[in-house]
Amino acid sequence: MTEIRAMRQDDLYDVSLLEQQIFSRPWSRSAFADAIYLDHTVFLVAEENRTVIGYAGMYISLDEGEITNVAVSERARGRGVGRLLVDSLKEEALRRSVTKLILEVRISNDAAIHLYEKNGFQKCGVRKGFYEEPKEDAYIMIYGQ
């Protein structure tokens, strides 16, 4: 059974390992450590059998949330873990009176785009050259008002 909970200090090693495996320009362990205790952030982990299998993060500014990371380990993909993480971010946003969520996603990342669209996000623009290594454009996707 997958449990979604707040990211803790003792998750940072596993989270940073996943980050390095998944992203070409990964956040450092210290970047996560700096972010998880801020009042205007939400960082969650998905855990099974005391093993971190995914995580997600969001920064909040007034009534807007910016989703910074959603990642699921390769062995846990296709089982709804990403959906659980995104749903949990949306629930936390609602609890904090956030009315709009925004994120960027590589235009080639069909699986992530499909996940976000199934969760009510809509493409609203393109950021040219947003990603490095490899250089690629990003869709801007929005949920809410």
Which labels suit this protein?
145 residues; alpha+beta; Aminopeptidase; 7-stranded mixed β-sheet; 4 helices; 7 strands
Outline the fold blueprint.
Elements: E1 3-6, H1 12-22, H2 29-35, E2 41-48, E3 51-61, E4 64-72, H3 81-95, E5 100-106, H4 110-118, E6 122-131, E7 136-144
Description:
It is a single chain. The chain contains four helices and seven strands, in the order E-H-H-E-E-E-H-E-H-E-E. The N and C termini lie far apart (33 Å). The protein has a seven-stranded mixed beta sheet, sandwiched between helices. Helix 1 (12-22) packs across helix 2. It has a single domain, classed as Gcn5-related N-acetyltransferase (GNAT) (Aminopeptidase, 3-Layer(aba) Sandwich). It has helices at 12-22, 29-35, 81-95, 110-118, and strands at 3-6, 41-48, 51-61, 64-72, 100-106, 122-131, 136-144. It is α+β, with helices and mostly antiparallel strands.
Measured distance between first and last alpha carbons: 33 Å
CATH C-level category: Alpha Beta
Major sheet attributes: 7 strands, mixed
Overall number of strands: 7
Query: What is the count of distinct domains?
Result: 1
Question: What is the residue-averaged pLDDT?
Answer: 95
What's a quick, concise take on this entry?
Helices cover 29% and strands 40% of the residues. The chain is an alpha+beta fold and 145 residues long.
